[in-house]
Design goal:
Blueprint lengths: L1 E8 L5 H15 L5 E8 L6 E8 L2 H8 L3 H10 L6 E8 L5
Antiparallel strand pairs: 1-3, 1-4, 2-3
Length: 98
C-alpha cells in the first residue's frame, strides 16, 4: 500500500465548489479497486489549505491501473479545474500504523 498526498491552496471564494467537487470525486474514487481509502481535509489554521489523502493498493495500481481506467477519466473531469492550485503531490510508503 502507498499513500498519495495532494496539497491544494484554494481561494476562499472557491472553497465551497472545491469541497463539493471533491465529494463527487471521492464517490468516483470509491469505485476503483485500486483506491483503498480517501479523505479531504481543510487546515484549521489556514482555511485556504487542503490536503487530499488517498490510500492506493500499490504505485502500479495507481499509476497504471487507475490512471488508464474510465474511473480516472470521470475523477479527473471533476478535479481538473483545481490542478493549477496543487502545491504538492507525492506518494509515501507507510512504515508504521497504529
Amino acid at each position: 500500500m502507498v499513500v498519495e498526498y495532494i496539497r491544494y491552496k484554494v481561494a476562499a471564494t472557491g472553497a465551497e465548489a472545491f469541497e463539493q467537487d471533491y465529494a463527487n470525486a471521492g464517490a468516483v474514487l470509491a469505485t476503483s479497486p485500486h483506491c483503498l481509502r480517501y479523505e479531504l481535509s481543510r487546515c484549521v489554521d489556514e482555511p485556504v489549505s487542503y490536503v487530499v489523502r488517498i490510500e492506493w493498493d500499490s504505485i502500479d495500481g495507481h499509476m497504471r491501473g487507475f490512471r488508464s481506467s474510465a474511473v480516472f477519466q470521470r475523477f479527473f473531469a471533476l478535479v481538473r479545474p483545481y490542478v493549477q492550485q496543487i502545491e504538492e503531490m507525492r506518494h509515501y510508503e507507510v512504515l508504521s500504523k497504529d
